[in-house]
Amino acid sequence: MPRPPDQDKRRELTDRIRAYLVRHGLAGLSLRPLARTLGTSDRMLLYYFGTKEAMVAEALALDERRPLRGARELLDTTSPRTPADVRRFMEEIWRRFDAPDLRPALPLYLEIMTAGLIEPDRYGPLLQDVLTEWTDLLSSAFRDLGMTDVRARTEATLLVDATFGLLVASLTEGGRDPADTAFGVLLDRLEPGWHAT
């Protein structure tokens, strides 16, 4: 019976793969040069991760879900929830995406989104899974505010997609300050509609 992969080694490789992807991007990613940089072999990378796409997804999950795991406590510990709680949650998420160890990965997310459109079978699920997780969490929060399932999903989709768009916009020449202002305006305009009617 084959020996199961060493989980400590897998975590170490995942950290190093993430750093490589942030530096070099996804375009032209090849297992052999990556393996050489990491001091291993392409065969060992496949042993630990199965496929190149699974490897990329796992490396990105370090970043994608860290802000979600940390900030969701703001919602999980608040009951009953109010529109102001949802706003505080989103403001905290926005702040965490500006962390020095996370912000450098944002261009990679944009590249993966583009790759997912060009090669949906290979890269489409990577970012979609994360967006779905965020949308599901916010849908639940909006249902707790008394919204119907359909309305809660619509509000969550609008908020998640607009926030992601502003994160992408913050990478352009205008930088973070205009995106910060626009994010505040977005919440100012949306929050009144979150009150139960």
Short description:
By secondary structure, this protein is mainly α. The protein contains 10 helices and no strands.
What does this structure look like?
By secondary structure, the protein is mostly helical. The protein contains ten helices and no strands. The protein has helices at residues 7-24, 31-38, 42-49, 52-71, 73-76, 83-96, 106-118, 120-144, 149-169, 176-190. The chain is elongated, with a radius of gyration of 19 Å. It starts with 6 loop residues before the first helix and ends in a 7-residue tail after the last helix.
How many separate helices?
10
Globally, the shape reads elongated
Distance between the termini: 61 Å
Strand content: under 5%
**What's the alpha carbon Rg, rounded to whole Å?**
19 Å
**Helix/sheet category:** mainly alpha
- What is the chain-wise order of helices and strands? HHHHHHHHHH
Number of strands: 0
Roughly what is the average pLDDT, rounded to an integer?
84
Give the proportion of residues in helices. Answer: over 70%
Q: How would a textbook summarize the main sheet? A: none
Low-confidence parts: none
